[in-house]
Write a sequence for this structure.
């Protein structure tokens, strides 16, 4: 089993020489359960490359895709996912129903004629749509999946994937609540304000979490639905996670800036005498699970 990152960026794709190390594609994470079993987290622009890989190298006929929310950076890869254009494939999209608009309705709206040259009914694969609610639990391929709510500007899901004794929590867009002081973080305050989400993440093996902002920026972006690397470090220590994976990078941050964020986070964890292993998500990075 392994985790592989196909898109790590937030908001908008940013290809180029200054983003080669961590990547410019928007969120898409592969969980490989077996050689022929896969679960995909989110469908940002990274989904295109994952689809090309699956189509060219392996025979996956049943592919579940768990959508955290419907901001464009998390669904924009769907029209370019080649397995959708192969007969006999089964693709299942999981996501929220919002204001009576279910998964199918929301994803269909992305592919109306004014937005895209073909519509969702023209996929050759058999496409299914499954509504998921907050605080749900369900099985995919004998893997337990649980959900919770993110603190974001739109309705958004958090996913916990449990495989045997291992667990992974995926929170691509979430603003960790830190109180009104705005000057310094306190463990007690963060624990109080984020208690239920901390419990959801408690002692997970891997936490993949929004780290959109540095400390200078996050102070100016309160209410924008994203976290800083240091507030995330506090959160992770309280939750006693084993591996912290920084994710959903600011599109304005180049590789050098992200290097600095990861180093700063790791230094803070060590200063706090935490055993958490800090990892920066990179396109192409594979982690045995």
């Amino acid at each position: 089993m392994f985790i592989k990152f196909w898109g790590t960026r937030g908001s908008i794709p940013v290809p180029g020489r200054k983003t080669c190390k961590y990547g410019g594609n928007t969120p898409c994470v592969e969980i490989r359960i077996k050689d022929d079993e896969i679960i995909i987290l989110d469908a940002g622009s990274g989904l295109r490359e994952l689809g090309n890989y699956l189509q060219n190298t392996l025979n996956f006929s049943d592919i579940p895709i768990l959508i955290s929310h419907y901001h464009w950076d998390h669904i924009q890869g769907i029209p370019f996912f080649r397995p959708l254009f192969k007969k006999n494939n089964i693709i299942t999209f999981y996501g929220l129903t919002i204001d009576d608009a279910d998964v199918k309705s929301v994803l269909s709206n992305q592919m109306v004629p004014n937005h895209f040259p073909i519509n969702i009914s023209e996929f050759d694969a058999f496409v299914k749509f499954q509504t998921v609610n907050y605080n749900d639990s369900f099985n995919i391929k004998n893997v337990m999946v649980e959900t919770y709510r993110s603190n974001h500007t739109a309705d958004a899901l958090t996913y916990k994937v449990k495989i045997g004794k291992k667990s992974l929590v995926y929170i691509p867009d979430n603003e960790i609540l830190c109180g009104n002081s705005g000057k310094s973080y306190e463990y007690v305050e963060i624990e109080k304000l984020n208690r239920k989400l901390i419990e959801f993440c408690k002692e997970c093996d891997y936490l993949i979490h929004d780290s959109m902002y540095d400390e200078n920026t996050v102070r100016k972006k309160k209410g924008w639905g994203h976290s800083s690397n240091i507030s995330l470090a506090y959160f992770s220590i309280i939750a006693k996670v084993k591996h912290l994976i920084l994710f959903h990078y600011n599109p304005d941050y180049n590789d050098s800036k992200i290097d600095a964020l990861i180093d700063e986070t790791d230094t803070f964890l060590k200063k706090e005498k935490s055993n958490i292993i800090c990892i920066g998500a990179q396109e192409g990075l594979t982690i045995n699970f």
Summary: The radius of gyration is 18 Å.
